[in-house]
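Review box. Two proteins, two foldings.
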Amino acid sequence: MPISLQRVESPTPGQSTPAPLAFQWLDRVSESLAASVGRRPMWFLIGLSALYLIGTSALASSRLFWFDEILTYHIARMPTIASLLATLRAGLDLNPPFYFVVTHFTRSLFGESELAMRIPVLIGFWVMCLCLFRFVSRGCTPLYGLVALLLPVATTAYNYAFEARPYGLVLGLCGVALVCWQSYARDNSRLGLAMMWLCMTAAISSHYYAVMALLPLAAGEMVRITAQRKPDFKVLGALALSGIPILFLLPQLRMARTFAAAFWSKPSILSFLTFYDFLMGHGQFFLVIALVLAAIMSMTRARGPEAEPPRHAPTLAESVVAIGFVLLPYIAISFAAVAGSGFAPRYALPSVIGVATLLPMAVYTASRGRLAIGAALAIVFFLAFSAREISASRRFFHPPERLKAYNFLSDNTNDLPIVIVNPLEFLKVAHYGSDEWKRRAAYVVDLSDSVRYGDSDTADRALMRLRTVTPLNVFDYADFVRAHPRFLVFGAYSWEIRYLSDHAADIRVVGKYDKDLLFEVRRQPDTR
């Protein structure tokens, strides 16, 4: 039987092979999605904004305040701005005043509920996301801008969208400053220049570490000036002027320096190694999926439709700004280590701006604007966004968080005072507890021994100042022990228990509640 030989043509160099059917389908979907986002971006933004506001409002209204937020609550409810500023100068909170002034006004408009007190940060975080969409869309396409908008919600930064502290507001102000800088750099907008200065001034007046956000903008501007070979120092001048509030806040900064030696969080080598693990959190899972998808799709020989050449490609200056924000935490940690200041990872949250802009810009550039890859990234982060917001919105249908009710309040009828050893838990009890809890709960302060036994006195100092603003059962340790020869101590085994043991107090465990213990303390005659 004769054998027929058929000629099999192999692809010539540069000729593409057929892409898998899944990728062909994604190419068609991405083209449709890109066209829809490009034609009607406002509808996408309105829909995502509604989903964000519903889910985040549910979280903001259902979660109890924690220690720092309760400080915000008492500062914001000062009767006048003058008294608010005096309270800050007295050291109740070490942050600059602008955020507290904003919260003071929102409280007067919307009340003192958990949701009302968190409105500034809830709005601020989403303003940042919208600004990232604008920033990336101008250099790439709206499809890639969508990736920048969605990504922050998948990170730990989102937790500060419903925490009544300055971080969410700082993110919003930095986001507006970013697009205003871009507006000036691309369009020579004087309004953009003025708004950039105003926003950075407000950000620095809300948190000292916001001054670090000036560096990425300054670096990008230096690149822009060098590239255009034309002197233009307006932006650098505006950025320099943004730091003027620091001069007026020097007395408060000097006070903050007194907290540094025993501050609860200090910079270390571990801070360098773990920062992005903190920032990305569960978002690392979605980031890996997005990058793997992009890599697989970029290796397919058949290329899908490319984006129409945008009016502006990402500029080198914009890329430098994005990289600068990515490097911001390492600059902040290094500064804190050299200056001997405290540092907590949340102080460098504006770095999320760098991650959310650099990723889509880099992928867009590497893939030459391939729509399928942009669509894949947008879909992955949309799933992360939707999962988080839909899960959060379910809190509207569940009872809000409540303070734990412990049986020992009724079991122990001896009416002894109860020393709560955890300052964070004590302040929550003092704010939300029942009348009996508030009457019997106490916190005792000994700054030298809290550092000796517990390494930090930050919370103790805050409570000592807060008791001058609102009635609070915070007592000097020695005075309390002399006045109460017998009392209860509630909490985990802590420095107070070790201290009492070292000073010959009779201590015995009388109950266990979850992970906490209830001790009965009888003071010996020689106990201080």
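Next protein.
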Amino acid sequence: MRRIPPSLIQICLLALALPVVSCSVLDPVGGAISKGYENTVSYCNAYYNAEKLFGEAEAEALTFRLAQRGQPVNPGTPAQAVPANTRAKFTQVIDKCSSILSFHETSALVDDALLLIGKSYYYQAEYLKAERKFEELLAKYPEGPLSMETELWLLRSYAKNGKRAEGLQLGEVLFAAATEDGEDDMAGQALLVLAELERTNDPTRCMQHLSQAVRLLDDDLECATAQAQVGDILRSLGRNEEAVEAYLIVPDISSDTYIRFYAIVSAARTYGSMKRYEDALELVEELLDDYSFAPHWNEIRLEVAEAKERLGWLDQALVDFEYIDTTAARTEFGTRAAFRRGWILEHTYGDYRGAYAAYARASAFTVAGVSPMAKQRENALSRHSALHRQIGVIDSILALPPVEVPDSVAKARPAPNPDSLLSVKTKAQFGLAELFYSDLEVPDSAVYYYRKVLAAPADTGRTPRVLYIMADLSRTQNLGVSPDSLYGVIIRDYPSSPYALASQDALGIPRPERVEDPARALYLDAEQVLEQGNYPEAIASFERIIELHPTSDYAARSRYAIGWIYEYVLALPDSALTQYKTLVADYGSSSFASRVRPKVAPDEVAPAAVVDTVAAPKPVTTPLERRRTEETDTPPSPDSRRGQATDTRTAVPPKPTPIKDED
């Protein structure tokens, strides 16, 4: 049998004697034992696991942020703070630490738990909750060992929550305390947040903070990032030479691939803004020789191609753009390359077919600021092709020699009316003119087709608009006529057109005061007679308006009303056609003439005045500044102004009604 050591016997006797010893003697000892037990239990049960889990989640969050650098951000889509699985880990950290606060509130790990909760909220982008936890920690332990680190995280939360004043005050205090304690990295971290707070309000002060932080921070990547931000600010201030110098320091600070790539490309773009395209090209071409930049080669190649385009090396640029478009299809860089290729083909080479194909590829993948423009130009070139085909078909039909056909065949399938074909051709030419003027921005081609419209044998009703646009184009094109003279023609020959008022404004002619049209009352009376079914008297009333007030807007409306009665009430189409022809001949620029013009044979309409003093345009290469002029020749139907619904299912058109006066 083993002999029991005397020391063990003494310990047992002491333990047996403890209950009879006064509690007041051993209270401090018991409290210490109890406190240690509490700390041990809370650490093993909760904090150890929470701290370990937080370390994993923080590493994942930082890795995710590094991977997100340079990635395109879709407008309207909120940026993801951390991946979903990382966010779940932070949530578990918050739960575990909350258990410590609830069940082990006397533990020495309460401050550590509060800090982990605040950090977890911060990484989850719950900045207001994070701010509250950091403030709670500082309130409970203002002089604790975690106070300086907590102040840094609180400072970051202030910046995220837009509390600039509180952030500046706390940042200055933290920077001073860290500097005094020799905590250079902590001082540098404070400066980074102070720079963020000053970025918008005081860029110069922001740049000073960043420059100072570069000298204090321990981490090379943070130093390099701050230095690159100095370059960004200098560039935004127009100090391009200094910006290039700042960018080119970055590769010497850190070996991180992305920050080196960002700095060198930014320096190249800054050279581009200085029109030093060869220097820009030299910088980015060197990156293609370094395999470490392989993940960024598509963007680098795009920079190379754009530099060549700016240098005027268009053949080489087209080859590079096509290569990027092919190898990086349906990516941001492939889309941008396709758009630039389409732009060169359209504006420099006039290759609309090739440009259309390039724009179609650029619009197939959504890139903010590029795809909508590509789609617009794709649609414009598609319409250009369709209008050209239409004109070509009409020309081929008109060029056919006359062929005698039997009467039976002619009755069954009448030959196309040449005048109708010419009318359709003029409409297509007007469409091309508008396209070149508004969408493709080729002013000399716009002038060419507008002159075709003016030379049409019949008034198309578009003459006032064409003349107005020609006046605008004559400011940049040599048309042999001044804008003022064209405005004068519009005012003289088309006084009822909306473009007459616009022409008066262009010439500085004050608009006449609006007065009550005396024909309006007569028209309302005639309309009442029409509604009563007394059609002969209504026709006579409308004729009286035309006779007494031939220049009134109600004269054109009255002529239209007479034709309408003949066509749809009295079933006299020949009489209606006569009225419509007179309407087009006398009031060709009115909206009512536009309604009936398709019913009137073009060769029987008196042609409107056409300005034949416009000289042939000289070719230009500078795109005209876009001026979109909305077509206002055809106002809303009279019925819509009176609030009357029109049933489009009936074969009978709406009854002509007076225009409600507008203020």
